[in-house]
Design brief:
transmembrane; ABC transporter permease; ABC_transp_permease; about 65% helix; 2 domains; about 0% strand
């Protein structure tokens, strides 16, 4: 039966010079050399280079290198390198010795070049020794103290970054980390100094209380988005202010969070039974909170990669309308995601009051971590282990920045500029690919040969 959409289908095929299209495809030898050459030219034009059958497929090494060059991980690494390069230029420009030698550059150019090298190498060497290992110390334990400081600074950054990253994967932008950290720190701190419980149990109750506090505070934004459509960005920004002024009021009110007999807006010290234990002894600041963020990273990885809840999270993040058609309750996913995200940011606040600052806290206990967590999640590409590594990097910046300022006189603001540039380059992958001449990920797709045009020519 002929196809009403194809008038050529009703044409008889009995003539010797009029071959059927299927026969022409299966038996190309029956086609005249002129028509076969025309078909090959059409194939080359439609499919482009490499579309012909005679071109061998690329090797596994070539494919692997192409995937690396077009992947997200290489963009993150190159963004860090570019930011460090710009930071080196700023360090050189702000160095007094470089400015002095620039005055007679044309007379003795090597003096300025040497000054630039000394300033940049000295600054980044101090950054390394303040963040990883100090070679000037006499013992190994004293030498690794900077590494423990890096891990201590990274602990709340990783926890907060995981919370922001999980919300990103569901298509939500949780920038209420500050408020969620403050509420979690207040609940955990209140339990930590206001109750007498056995060791271990006291710490566990304070930890759970802080996680619940952070989860419920973030859950407000998730509930409002699910039920009323309120944008989570506006809601979480407003909740940051509500949490800050609420905690500030409680810190100034006797009988709530303020230390008895004190007029300062500060809580009493945490009781020893609620404090996180030290991992490497009292001479180091690294505490049990770092173990908790490792566990949290594994849990978030399992949720997103191995659980049905994570599949629904990712489906809603990719296309909520399609997820709704597939039977996923999108509203509930928003609420669940914000609850888990708030609990992770709450872990960041708990690690501050029960691990890092145990002598009592003020309204500045968040220390800007709630906003730094957004940067960490962006650098980690919203993946659990990527966020973990990004948190370590930013922890190293925080730990080494003070050493760089003290040893070389480099302004601490340069470290902040480097962090900001990392975000800038992460947000502009085409810029990084252009600078390093990396292939576009779209080049992975191969153009298929136009079979219809071949059949028409034959």
């Amino acid at each position: 039966m002929s196809d009403p959409q194809n008038p050529d289908a009703a044409r008889p095929t009995g003539a010797a010079g009029d071959l059927d299209a299927d026969v022409a495809i299966e038996e190309p030898g029956a086609v005249s050399p002129e028509k076969q050459t025309a078909a090959e030219d059409a194939r080359a034009t439609a499919g482009g280079p490499g579309a012909g059958a005679d071109v061998p497929p690329p090797s596994r090494w070539h494919t692997m290198l192409h995937q690396i060059a077009t992947g997200n991980a290489i963009i993150s690494v190159l963004a860090v390198l570019l930011a460090l390069l710009v930071g080196a230029i700023m360090i050189a420009f702000t160095d007094e010795r470089v400015q002095e030698t620039a005055g007679y550059f044309f007379a003795r150019p090597t003096d300025m070049l040497q000054a630039i090298w000394d300033s940049v190498a000295g600054a980044y060497s101090a950054l390394f020794q303040g963040a990883v290992y100090n070679f000037r110390r006499d013992t190994f334990l004293a030498g690794i103290r900077p590494l423990t400081e890096t891990l201590t600074f990274a602990t709340p950054l990783i926890a907060g970054g995981l919370g922001v990253a999980l919300a990103f994967r569901v298509g939500m932008f949780n920038i209420g980390g500050r408020g969620q950290m403050l509420i979690a720190a207040s609940v955990a701190g209140w339990i930590g100094f206001g109750f007498d419980l056995p060791w271990g149990l006291h710490m566990l109750v304070a930890l759970i209380g802080g996680l619940v506090g952070g989860a419920l505070w973030a859950g407000i934004a998730g509930f409002l988005k699910a039920r009323t459509g309120a944008h989570e960005v506006i809601v979480t920004i407003m909740l940051n202010y509500v949490a800050f002024y609420l905690v500030s009021w409680m810190l100034r009110t006797p009988g709530l969070l303020q230390a008895p007999g004190s007029s300062n807006p500060k809580t009493p010290a945490m009781k020893d039974t609620a404090i996180f234990p030290d991992l490497l002894g009292p001479q180091f600041n690294l505490h049990f909170g770092f173990v908790l963020v490792i566990i949290a990273t594994i849990v978030v990885w399992w949720i997103l990669s191995r659980s049905s809840l994570g599949f629904r999270f990712r489906a809603v993040g990719e296309n909520p309308n399609a997820a709704r058609v597939a039977g996923i309750n999108v509203r509930n996913m928003y609420v669940y995601a914000m609850l888990i995200s708030g609990a992770l940011l709450g872990l960041a606040g708990v690690s501050q009051v029960l691990g890092t600052v145990t002598t009592g806290f003020t309204a500045g206990i968040d220390a800007g971590i709630g906003f730094d967590a957004i940067t960490v999640a962006l650098l980690g590409r919203s993946t659990p282990w990527g966020t973990f590594v990004a948190g370590l990097l930013f922890g190293a910046f925080k730990a080494g920045g003070f050493s760089m300022q003290a040893a070389e006189g480099v302004p601490i603001e340069i470290v902040l500029v480097v962090q900001s540039l990392i975000v800038l380059f992460i947000a502009a992958p085409p810029l990084v690919r252009t600078i390093f001449r990396l292939p576009d990920p779209a080049s992975r797709r191969r153009a298929l040969p136009n079979v219809s045009q071949e059949v028409k020519i034959k």
